[in-house]
Each structure stands twice: as C-alpha cells, then as structure tokens.
Write a structure and sequence with these properties.
CATH superfamily of the largest domain: M75 peptidase, HXXE motif
Strand content: 5-15%
CATH topology of the largest domain: A middle domain of Talin 1
Number of strands: 8
Radius of gyration: 24 Å
Helix content: 40-55%
Oligomer: single chain
Number of helices: 11
Length: 392
C-alpha cells in the first residue's frame, strides 16, 4: 500500500463517519423485502420506542423518528445480552431514518442514547413460536475492549519498523556500491516490510508520504523534488538512472525510515483504525496494486498485494478474540485470506521474481481479481462490528 494509501485510509475513516451520521448502520446485509408495513418508532430523551405495541416477526423496516430536541443514537437490542440487531447513529432532532431488521423468536427492545444523557431502554417485546430466524445480534465492543489489541498491534509495528530500518540501511549501502541488481532485490525486501504495516498508517503522519508516496498530484510528476521514498527509488532503479545519482534518494529513504522508527513510540494508534484498516488495506490493494496502477517499473505490485494480505491478516489476528463471538463468517474470511494468498503467490516465479500484472494471462488475472475482491467484501463487516459503542 503506497504512502498515499495512508491518506486514502484517512479519507475512508471520514467517509465511514459521514455515513454513520447520514444513515442507519447495517451490521449485516439488508434482510429480504419486508413482509410487514413500515412502523414508525418515536424516540426522544425521555421516551424510547414506547409506541412499539403491535410487534410482528420477520423482515421489516422501522422508521425511527426523533421527536426530542437532542441528537440520539438508537439501537434495537437483546435486553438480556445487549446484543445489537440494528443501529442508527446521530439521529437528529425532528428527523426520521430507516432501520431494516429481521426479527425471530426472542426478546427485543429499543435503546436510546441521547447526547449528554444516560441510556434509556424501552419496553421489551417477546416473540415465540414464529419459526423465523432473526438477524445476528452483535455484542457491543467498548473502547476498553480494544486497548489490548491496539497494544499488541503497536508492539508488532515496532518490531516491523526495526526490520524496516535494517533493510533500508542495507538498501542504501547496496545502492552506494553501485550494484543495480542487488539494489533492486534489497529494494523489494525493504518495500514489502513497509507494506505489511498497513493498519498503522494513520499514526505515521507525513512520514507515510515521504517513505512511500507516489508522484500523483505533484506538479513535476516523477521529476518533482517532493517525489521521494520507495517509489522514487523504484523509478530510478528500473528506469536505469545512474546509480551514483540514486545514492541520495536511498539515503533520504533510510533517514526517513529511521526518523519514523524514532518518533513512532510517541504516536497513537487509534483503536478504531485496526478494524477499519483490515478492510481498507485490501480495498486499496484492489484499486492500486492488483491492477498495477502503483507500479513505477519494478513489476512487483502483486508482491505488494501479498504483503497487504499479510498485513491484513496481522491486524485481523489481534482482533480475533473480539471477532470470534461476533463474526459468524470469520472462518469464511480466513478461507478467502488463504485463497487470495494462493492466487497471488502463483505470480511468484521460480527464480524469485514476480510476474507483472500486465504479463498475466487472462485466467490468472481474473483469479487474482476475484479472490482479492471477495476477500475485501468478506472483510467489510469487521469495522462496523468492532467499532466501539456507547452502551450507557
């Protein structure tokens, strides 16, 4: 994932936040078309779903209307476990939004979380004997639940940065020696180490662009002085720039990597980023690596894709204790991680080089596209499920 992917990831966070304000969050895919007419549920600071008096099991869509004066988050929950079946965040005063759900046998209640006020849980509604299977309930994750995974991931990033500075140092030395073939091999080793740290990009700040930025948007393109880092060195190595001229580029990359290693312990990894990045890393790989768009001459964007898959797996593994009881499709996610890995690894040649995207035959390219796309789709619910929620 290039350095500009860090900016894309940040934009993705903002997009998710905007979506949360604009529409109900679907924890799972939308249910089948509703079999009952939409029911208006009124909520306010002092009343939460009191008008839900004639419940109907099966697929349906509630029209949740905020009659109060303050913005409110509204959840449909299992009152015994707190598990969430449907959620609307940031429901403004006087506004109405839809909450699609499927309700089977069990107990349900609306929970309202007004801004600057305690939670209010409405009356419990019970279904029995309907034979309908309800939407899965997601037990809320709190910010405290994410502190342990965030700490574990932080330690993994520090270990990864230690490896990175060793490798960028070795790369700079090789470039100074003037050995292009050895420099290309050292470049790939160091670049892949960086690419495996995807869930931490939000904490890297400007270092992400300095280390792995592209020439996109730069006035001078690949000749612009602001074009630095891995892709600048890649462009020079594979476009036969004089090795002596590339020594300064390699030294700058090494210095930037060391500066990041030194500053990172004082940075903060937002716990939310772990779940968001697990999905966004693969979104970016699909958009920029699988199609070769981020290739500056090395033909190794599929190697980058594999490193992105590894980085996703690492982020997912630290979240696994939270996901095991909340994401029934986790085994399917693991299956597609393995399938995507196998599909991409098939582009790794016996001599250790990688097949450029443009040199793939149609069948292999479609196999990689399909596997990475399906993995990305399977990862989509993770961020919503693991997002910390207020419950009181």
């Amino acid at each position: 994932m290039p350095g500009f992917a860090g900016n894309r990831c940040i934009a993705g966070v903002l997009a998710v936040a905007a979506l949360a304000v604009a529409a109900a969050i679907a924890l799972w895919p939308a249910p089948a078309p509703a079999t009952a007419p939409d029911l208006v549920i009124s909520v306010s600071r002092s009343s939460c779903g009191q008008d839900w008096t004639d419940p109907t099991p099966g697929p349906q869509t509630f029209q949740v209307h905020n009659t109060g004066a303050v913005t409110t988050t509204v959840d449909l929950v299992d009152p015994a476990t707190g598990g969430i079946f449907g959620e609307i965040e940031g429901l403004g005063s006087g506004t109405t939004r839809s909450m699609p759900v499927t309700l089977g046998d069990g107990e349900y209640a609306f929970r309202c979380l007004p801004d600057d006020a305690d939670a209010d849980v409405g009356p419990t509604v019970l279904f029995s004997g309907s034979g309908v299977r309800s939407s899965p309930a997601v037990v809320p994750v709190t910010r405290n639940d994410l502190l342990g995974p965030a700490k574990d991931y932080r330690e993994k990033v520090i270990t990864g940065l230690d490896a990175l500075v060793r490798e960028t140092g070795a790369l700079a030395t090789t470039v100074h020696h003037g050995d292009r073939q050895a420099s290309e091999a050292a470049w790939l080793t160091a670049h892949l180490s960086y690419q495996q740290l995807g869930a931490a990009y939000g904490a890297f700040g400007d270092a992400a662009s300095a280390i792995d930025g592209t020439a996109d948007g730069l006035v001078g393109g690949t000749s612009d002085p602001a074009f630095t880092g891995f892709h600048r060195l890649e462009f020079g190595l594979w476009h036969r720039a004089p090795m002596a001229a590339l020594a300064a580029v390699a030294d700058r990359l090494d210095a930037d990597a060391r500066a990041l290693r030194q500053s990172f312990p004082a940075a903060q990894i937002d716990p939310n980023d772990l779940a968001l990045r697990a999905h966004e890393i693969m979104e970016d790989a699909l958009q920029f690596e699988v199609n070769g768009r981020a290739d500056y001459g090395s033909g190794t964007t599929l190697a980058t894709t594999l490193a992105n898959i590894d980085g996703t797996r690492t982020a997912l593994n630290v979240l696994r204790p939270l996901l095991q009881q909340r994401l029934p499709t986790l085994p399917t996610v693991d299956t597609w991680l393995d399938r995507a890995t196998s599909a991409v690894q098939a582009a790794w040649r016996p001599d250790g080089t990688w097949t450029p995207v443009g040199a793939l035959d149609q069948r292999h390219r479609e196999e990689i596209d399909g596997a990475v796309a399906e993995l990305t789709e399977q990862l989509a619910p993770v961020a919503t499920i693991v997002a910390p929620r207020r419950v009181s």
